[in-house]
């Protein structure tokens, strides 16, 4: 086997590992987004429960305002009743007072009902917040692990790129340029075995003349179909 082939195989092994790690880095944002998406449902549940509480609180305030308004009216009517000396007017005011008092009793019942709804809403919100906290802790842990993974991958990439540069330095310039074009275009491998007359890259049969040329091991030989650099396995 040509010395250049041995050098290129070592270089290729580093490039393949670098490509794998770079792909891993590209996939990490996808994993991060997927982890964050786990929060969406729980956040929506908290938002819904919070909105429900606001609705109930607004209803309670509205009822309290209506009660206060009617009580003010009752006080005003009672003052008028106290001041009047006419019996029929006194009785008419009394009927008005009774009507307002019935309204107050009805409104107070509604207020109690809404207060019960408020208690239920607060319990629902607490449950939703607790569930969100558990999910958030899990997501935070996963995100932290992914960040740690990013740091580890970047550190390993730096090491491999330094090793690659060292391995590429002694390779013939023309051979290195050919290899670089092929590994960039093919992605998986630029240097492949020729075994039983078959290219290890495209799996096409190699012509006899190319096999004979490869056996002489004088220079780099390429597959007639895919152009990959071949080395003989017998």
Short overview:
By secondary structure, this protein is mostly helical. 79% of the residues lie in helices and 6% in strands. The radius of gyration is 41 Å and the shape is rod-shaped.
Which short descriptors sum up this protein?
Helix Hairpins; mainly alpha; 234 residues; single chain; 2 domains
Q: Work out the helix count.
A: 4
Structural class computed from helices and strand pairing? mainly alpha
Largest sheet: 4 strands, mixed
Order of helices and strands: HHHEEHEE
Mean pLDDT: 94
> Which outline best applies?
rod-shaped
What is the CATH class name of the largest domain? Mainly Alpha
Strand content is 5-15%
Strand order, main sheet: write it out: 2-1-4-3
Spans of at least 5 consecutive residues with low confidence: none
DSSP, total strands = 4
> Could you tell me how far the N terminus lies from the C terminus, measured between alpha carbons in angstroms?
11 Å
Taken together, the total number of domains comes to 2
CATH topology-level name of the largest domain: Helix Hairpins
Q: Could you please describe the fold and organization of this structure?
A:
- With 234 residues, the chain is mainly alpha-helical.
- It has two domains: 24-169, Helix Hairpins (Orthogonal Bundle); 172-234, no CATH class.
- Helix content is 79%, strand content 6%.
- It has four helices and four strands.
- Strands 2-1-4-3 form a four-stranded mixed β-sheet.
- β3 (221-222) and β4 form a beta hairpin.
- α1 (3-83) runs antiparallel to α2 (87-168) and α1 packs across α3.
- The longest helix has 82 residues, at 87-168.
- The mean pLDDT is 94.
């Amino acid at each position: 086997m040509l010395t250049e082939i041995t050098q290129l195989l070592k270089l290729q092994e580093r490039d393949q590992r670098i490509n794998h790690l770079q792909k891993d880095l590209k996939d990490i944002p996808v994993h991060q987004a997927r982890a964050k998406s786990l929060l969406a449902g729980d956040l929506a549940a908290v938002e819904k429960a919070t909105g429900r509480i606001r609705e109930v609180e607004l209803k309670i305030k509205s009822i309290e305002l209506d009660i206060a308004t009617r009580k003010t009216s009752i006080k005003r009517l009672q003052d008028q009743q106290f001041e009047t000396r006419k019996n029929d007017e006194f009785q008419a005011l009394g009927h008005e007072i009774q009507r307002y008092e019935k309204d107050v009793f009805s409104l107070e019942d509604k207020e109690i009902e809404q207060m019960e709804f408020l208690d239920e809403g607060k319990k629902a919100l607490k449950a939703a917040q607790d569930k969100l906290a558990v999910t958030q802790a899990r997501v935070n842990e996963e995100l932290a692990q992914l960040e740690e993974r990013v740091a580890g991958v970047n550190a390993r990439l730096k090491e491999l790129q330094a090793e690659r540069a060292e391995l590429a330095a002694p390779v013939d310039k023309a051979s290195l340029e050919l290899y670089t074009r092929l590994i960039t275009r093919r992605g998986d491998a630029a240097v492949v075995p020729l075994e039983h007359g078959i290219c290890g890259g495209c799996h096409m049969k190699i012509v006899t003349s190319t096999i004979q040329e490869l056996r002489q091991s004088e220079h780099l030989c390429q597959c007639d179909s895919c152009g990959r650099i071949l080395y003989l396995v017998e």
